[in-house]
Amino acid sequence: MPSSLKDTQNERDDRKIAIDRVGVKNLRFPLRIRDRDQSQQHTVATVTMAVDLPHHYKGTHMSRFVEVLHAHGRELTVASIAAMPRELLSRLNARKAHVEMRFPYFRAKRAPVTKAEGLLDYGVVFEVNAEGDEVDYVVTVEVPVATLCPCSKAISERGAHNQRGLVTLSVRFRQPIWIEDLIELVEASASSQLYSVLKRPDEKYVTEAAYDNPVFVEDLVRSVAQKAYGHKQIKWFRVEAENFESIHNHNAWAVIESHNQPALI
């Protein structure tokens, strides 16, 4: 039976201003993700879904975004995320669609000396955009690290300042790539990786390892970029590093995007 209720969203808007993205944000939904270490893990994603809106439409149908989300059952997977933008194009008669899933991802890590085990969380983002028949998929990992300042080490007699930092690595890939592979690529570029459980022998090992491997924020992004350029599955990347400085009232920050090709020697 056709509805007799007024459809205000389909009314005409005469301001002639199109909207780039309109939709729903900060929805939380269960997510099941493949895990290289443990086969799979369950987490909760914060979801953003949007489409473009032509200038002549007053509004979009917000309920249809949620319907598309729930059409995949009570738990999302990578495959269902990848399919959603095209479903939005069809359901909302749009030209462009955007789906973003942000979620915590946990890894069990053993301390370097005592092997005490604890869970460490990383931020992960899946972003999928569709325009016509084209689909663009970007995976982002947010990896906490430790860095030690080379300048401080060079000029100080009794130590060097160090700090935690956050490296954000986004990639487009030729073949699917493990989240763990991206995390390890970043951690191998820092002065030291982080752990959730450290006993005294572990703390000694970590601080001395960082002291032996000082890196500026510039070193950090260059090292990540060098590894990403050499990774066969990565076809584009953007790496951003931010050091939460321990002796300055500011943070140090650097970015490399892969359209900046390595200099020829």
TrEMBL record:
<keyword id="KW-0378">Hydrolase</keyword>
<comment type="similarity">
    <text>Belongs to the GTP cyclohydrolase IV family.</text>
</comment>
<feature type="site" description="May be catalytically important">
    <location>
        <position position="149"/>
    </location>
</feature>
<dbReference type="InterPro" id="IPR003801">
    <property type="entry name" value="GTP_cyclohydrolase_FolE2/MptA"/>
</dbReference>
<dbReference type="GO" id="GO:0003934">
    <property type="term" value="F:GTP cyclohydrolase I activity"/>
</dbReference>
<dbReference type="InterPro" id="IPR022838">
    <property type="entry name" value="GTP_cyclohydrolase_FolE2"/>
</dbReference>
<comment type="function">
    <text>Converts GTP to 7,8-dihydroneopterin triphosphate.</text>
</comment>
<dbReference type="GO" id="GO:0046654">
    <property type="term" value="P:tetrahydrofolate biosynthetic process"/>
</dbReference>
<dbReference type="Pfam" id="PF02649">
    <property type="entry name" value="GCHY-1"/>
</dbReference>
<comment type="pathway">
    <text>Cofactor biosynthesis; 7,8-dihydroneopterin triphosphate biosynthesis; 7,8-dihydroneopterin triphosphate from GTP: step 1/1.</text>
</comment>
<protein>
    <recommendedName>
        <fullName>GTP cyclohydrolase FolE2</fullName>
        <ecNumber>3.5.4.16</ecNumber>
    </recommendedName>
</protein>
